[in-house]
Structures are given as structure tokens and as C-alpha cells.
Amino acid sequence: MTKKALRDDDMHGLRRTGGLTWSVRLSIPRDRWTDAGKAFGTATGIKQELIRSLGTRDKQEAIKRRDKALAAMREDLDTRLVAAGLLPIHGHWQPDWMKPENLIADALDARREIQNASQRADDDFEDDLQGLSDPRRRMMDGMDLMLEDRTEKLNAAGKDGGKYYRQFREIALGESTPFSAILDRWMKERASTASHSLLSLDRATLNHFSRYLAHSQDLPEPEDLMSFLRSQIVEDVPKRVLGEFAEWLMDEQNLSAKTAANRITPLKVMWDFAIKKHILEGPNPWQGATAGLKRKAGKQPVTLRPYTASELIRLFEADPNKAKRWAWGPAIRDMMRLSLFTGARQNELASLTVGRILNRDGAEGPLWGIQVTNDVAKTRNAVRRIPLHPLVQPIIARRLSAADASNPDALLFPDCKPGGPGMKRGYYFAKRFPDFRKAVLGDASNDVVDFHSFRRSFITYFELANANGASACTEIMRDRLVGHESKSMAGNTYAARDLGWDLYSRAILGMVDKGMPDEVKEAV
Fold first, then answer.
1. Does the predicted model carry a pTM greater than 0.85?
2. Would strands 369-372 and 357-358 be described as parallel, antiparallel, or unpaired?
3. Cβ contacts of residue 431 below 8 Å, gap of 6+?
4. What would the pLDDT profile of 401-416 be if each residue is shown by its tens digit?
5. What's the chain's Rg over C-alpha atoms?
6. By CB neighbour count within 10 A (0-12 exposed, 13-18 middle, 19+ buried), where does 481 fall?
7. Spans of all domains in the chain
8. Rounded to an integer, what distance in angstroms lies between the CA atom of residue 143 and that of residue 452?
9. Homologous superfamily assigned to 309-523
10. Which helix (H) or strand (E) element contains residue 372?
11. CB 231 within 8 A of CB 178
């Protein structure tokens, strides 16, 4: 395209007035001049164009404002044509207020205004015979007049004005509740109290539930799952459909009973919230919905266990860097050892930064440590400090030297790229480690051990150390170091959350000294 053509394209629809201010011009098709003249009430009976000032003398700014102005002019033209009982310029036009998302938003606004309106008679209004002293009644009458006007306009345009009237009024009067009325408030509160992991599970649940509601209505899967769910009416979903959600998750989505239960729990929490806030009436239809699933999941044998000493030695002696397919070799090699000596989860390790390495100045003792912060902690109890045993401290020292030590947010495991619903840095690592584990330990290790088994081994060695006389390796110290809720009321309610670096250090040293087999330490 030539420079001249580009200039002509840029200037399309623009013109300058005598005052040098830019305006935009919308041409009306010749066969609609008479209709437009009638809609605008022109003296000549025809209207060939619409012109609107863009309020600027700057050409580039006028170009930026043009498209938005043209869209508004087209909508104004169509609105006037429909109001005059004529067909719109664009056959599929509908007024902005009729769009489903705007219908719901407007109706919810009316609902809030009606609920907040005082039912007390105005002091200066005494026409009690007709009930006009009730502000809520007057507000509802005004809403009905507005709806009647919109209904007439929709019917004139060949739309179903009656359906719009019914939907708006039912929502405004609280007779039906779109999911958006619940989701907006619940998700706002949830964001301030739930962890990133729980919010990720919430999103997965809502996506599954939206997909299921479309399936239950024999509709294709929505392109925008959340928008579809927001537009659905809670009261229109039969209790039977809610009751079959778990079966659909397991039969159609191939989820396990445990995962299906986890998908239902956020819905129960959301319904409880809506009932508490008087958005919905009780009882909660999800109450007890996961009981059977949990029993079913409980019957499935739990076979995962800690690693044996020989398995750990084989994993540590295998070099994942030698095989070309192990692109994650350095991360696998280092995180296996760190997990065994700290009990940390894979995402907690993959998310380590320079600023989360503690006590490098030795102020609290000889051991460095790692900090698990709230943004990566699985639960509130998982926020903790863990000393690093001298055998694995060189791993962190090496990672620090390769990172930007001046930047506290610099990652120690930049090779662990984020992914998955919660964009966790352990997401892709969790998919690569099983390949390495299977290559070293064989198919017999499937469904028996996983990366979490390093954490199980840590706890096992901690218990052995306690039995062998390591005084610092107590039950409460174990719970604090691995980030579990203490089972005792005293430990969970009254004891300090942080029991001190010295005690934590002695527990880590004691665990390795009196609980971990010598051959495992040598393999590290």
C-alpha cells in the first residue's frame, strides 16, 4: 500500500470545520435517507449523514477518537430508528441495555436500590391511601414504567420484549438470582482470605461447573466459561442436576472420587456464603454431597510411602544430566536432596528466591535456612523457616552464586518455569520428575513413591531420630518444620508459631545424625 493510500485510510470519515476542529462523518445508505429523516424529524424529511465533533484540533488524536465516535453514532441512529417503529440500519442490532450482561447488571442495581429503599413513610408525603408514601413502592412503580417503555421498543424491533420484562423484574424483585450476583461478592472475599492454591482450585471448580451446566442444557461448550456461568439463573438449575454433578465429573471428565469431592467443596463454600449474606435461601443443596465420595475415595488403597534407603541411593547416584532427554536435570538433582533434608514441598523449593535464604550472615547460628512465604505456602501452617543441614547448604551456595545476589526476588531455580491453573513453578517439574524416577527405579515404583516421598522420608527419619534420643526432634518440632497443623490443642493454640532458630537447627542436625542412614548421607 502506498503512503498516499495510507494517508487516505487514516483520514477516512474525518473532516475539519471552519474552526479547525476535527469532526467525524457517518454516511447513511441512500435507501434509508427517508427513514433517517423521519427518525430525526428533519424539516426536509430526509437525512443523509450524521456529523459529530471530536473536540480536538490534533489530527492523531482525532484518528484515535474516530472509531469510538462512529460506533456511538451508529447506535444512536439505530436507537432512533427503532423508537420510530422502523428497522435499524444493521439488522442484528439490539439496544445496549438488552445485552444479557447489561440486563443482569441493571436488574441487580435495581434490586439493591429496592432492598435499600426505606419502607418508612416520608414525613412530607401523606397520601397513604394509595400507598404512595412507601419509597420502595414508588421505586418499583418507576421501574415498571421503564420496563414498559423498553418492552414497547423491543417489540417494535421484532424482539421479545415480554421476555426482557419478565427476566428483569424477577431479578430485581429477588425472585431469581443470576450467578453473577454471588460470584462477584464471593470471589472478592475469597481473594482476601484464601491462598493462591485454593483460588486456583476455585477457578477449576467454576470452569467444570459452567461446562456441566451447558452440558445439562444440551448446549455446546461455551467459549467463555465464566461469562456463561455468570449469566445462568440459580433457581433455574434443578436440584436433580446439582445432584448429578459428581457423577458427571467422574464419568465424563474421568476424575477420581477424591478429585470430584475437591471440585464440589468450593461450591458448598460459595453457597454457604450466599446464604449467610441473604443472597440465597437455605438449605445448602451441597450439604453432605461429598460424604459418599470421600467414603469411596477412602476405600481406594493408599499405597504411597517413603523411599527406602536403597531407592534414595539409586536416585542420588543416577546423574539426570547425562541423559539428553533430562532437560530438567539440574533441578531434579538439587531439589531431591533439598526435599529430603528439609521436608519442603516441590513448589516451595522451585519458588525459592535470593531473599528467602536466611541467616547467611550467621547471626543466629552456623546454619543457613530457607523461608516459605505466604504466597507459595499451601496452608497457613506452611509459612515457616527451615534450617539447612551442612550437607545440602553447598547446593544453595551454588545456586546463589549463579543468581543476581543483589536482587532479593531473583530465582534460585529459574529453570522451573511456572505453569498450570495457579502458575506454580513446581507445575512442569512435577511432570518431569516421574520420568526420571521411573527410569531409575522402574515401573515397580509407579503409584508407590513420588516426589512427595522425599517429604515422607524426612518425617520418617525425624521419628527415628526421636526414638534414638534426639531431644529436639519432638512432635511439635516436626509439625513446625514440615508445616503441618499440630494435633495437640496446646501445640496448635497456645505454643508460639516460631520456636526459635536454635531449636530448629538442633532438630535438623539431630534428624540427620540419629535418624538418617549413613549410606544415604554418603550418597548425598
1. no
2. antiparallel
3. none
4. 999 988 999 999 998 9
5. 33
6. buried
7. 3-83, 96-121+133-172, 179-299, 309-523
8. 59
9. Intergrase catalytic core (1.10.443.10)
10. strand 369-372
11. yes
